[in-house]
Amino acid sequence: MKTLYSSAESAYSLLEIPYHDWLSIQESPLFLFIPDQDDNYWLFLQQSPSLSQYSGLVSLLKVGGELYKFDGKNRKALWRSGKLQPPDTLMAQVFDISEVEFSALNAEMQAKRINTLPTNELIQGIYEELGLNFTSERIKSGFINEAINIALRGRPRALQDKRLSHEREDIDLKKAIKLFSNELTFIDSINPKPDIFVTGVLAGALIMLGTHRDLQEFFTRVNNRQGEHKNNLEDPVAGLVRTIERHRIDDRSMPAMLSVELCRKTIQAVTLWEEGVESPLYWRRKLVSGIDHMPYIREMKRAKHIDGQRDL
Questions:
Q1: What is the tens place of the pLDDT at every residue in 85-99?
Q2: CA-based nearest residue to 140, from 100, 94, 177, 93
Q3: How many domains does the chain have?
Q4: Does this model's pTM top 0.70?
């Protein structure tokens, strides 16, 4: 890293920095979410060698002696993917900024991000922040917000009553995803089918796995539709799969209520599975009707030591 220009009066300097050293510099929310020129802009400029210095010009922020990337997010992705040839060195403008101002800018950027991003993209960002690398389409897509709300509050956010103290605050999604990280990791590992792990089933799985029950086999068999039949009766796995399929063709005028109902039925299927094959309750002809899920949510919260946390 070589200093080409520095001015204490203007709190500005210009550095020549090796590309690989620039890659290792810290990234803040400002870098991740500040608007940037799109990929086509930079791909177009590579046709002009005379503009290579411009394409390799980046900005850094210096905060209390620490450097942070300020821009260059799209170019970083293009350089790392090989779509653009990375330069050996970059020219970096460095702007000194106070820790107070830096923190305020990051907080404002995070708030704008929350307000403008679709919820599933916000959740995908949380995965990245927590180091959760999911591979199944069902989980990595980020469409788990309603399942989390049902698992923690018993109903989707739209049906919660903000006049109640325990439902007044929105759920802190980062805390909730961290709380359920083990359960989500297991569910992701079985490559959950989107038509099986619909919102209500996912919510029921988070609740029951969250109580530390040994249910890996049950949910794996449900996902693979591996139910068993005996004398025109079906086991809890087959019964739940049939229930899920019935819900898919039912009236969709109130999907939120159907998700809660399917959560209750998932929990009932789990309790029947726990009875064991020798129990007369294990084998059924009728579809499960669902049981009260709130006692199991309270059990899960006790098991995870989150009683009384208003943002969960």
A1: 898 999 999 999 999
A2: 177
A3: 2
A4: no
